[in-house]
Amino acid sequence: MSPAVWATDLDLRYSDHLAMTQIALYVTEGTFDCVSSRFQVQLAPKKAPVQKEASLVSRYILMSSSIKNGNLSFIYYNVFLQMCKAHGIGYDVRLKEGTIFILFEDQKRNTFGMITIGEHLQGALMTFAQHLFIIYQELSAPNMHAETNFKGAIQDIERILGVTEQNKLKFGEEKKASKAKTSRK
């Protein structure tokens, strides 16, 4: 066998996706299994000394590091966070689910990251879209036309929700058909 040379072009760097994954792992104290694509967190016991075992549960994570709205640069970050808190947008430390914001400090101040962690995929998708919609409504005024990618992101999530609902129905039908087959035998 003759020697061969393989050339690859790798761009090795610390990406936004990796950074946001590390934030999610840090905040939840969870573990991510890359092979099975399973993210698990350990919930603290409800009663302190009596029940010592913590339960291990799966969670779903949605993240975006490039949510843009030009009007974000007109308000202070603490005002933005208070607005989110007033609308019930936040993170529950005990249940290890909710929404986390990553505020980027650049010259434009019009981009932020958002991580939503939920118990179910559809619930996490819906929460992400609802929070985007609320933030869009709060940041947008009828007479201000800022650059934003909120609407596109919400539409993408709605399409994904439609596909997950179709898959759920299809899976349910297949499950019923297989049960009917086994009951006939």
UniProtKB/TrEMBL annotation:
Q: Which gene encodes it?
A: LOC113415571
Residue ranges of every copy of the IQCH-like ATP-grasp domain listed in the record:
3-34
Residues of the signal peptide: none
State the source organism's domain of life.
Answer: Eukaryota
**Coiled-coil parts of chain:** none
Q: Which Pfam families match?
A: ATP-grasp_IQCH
Q: What is this protein called?
A: IQ domain-containing protein H-like
The record's InterPro entries line, in alphabetical order, gives: ATP-grasp_IQCH, IQCH
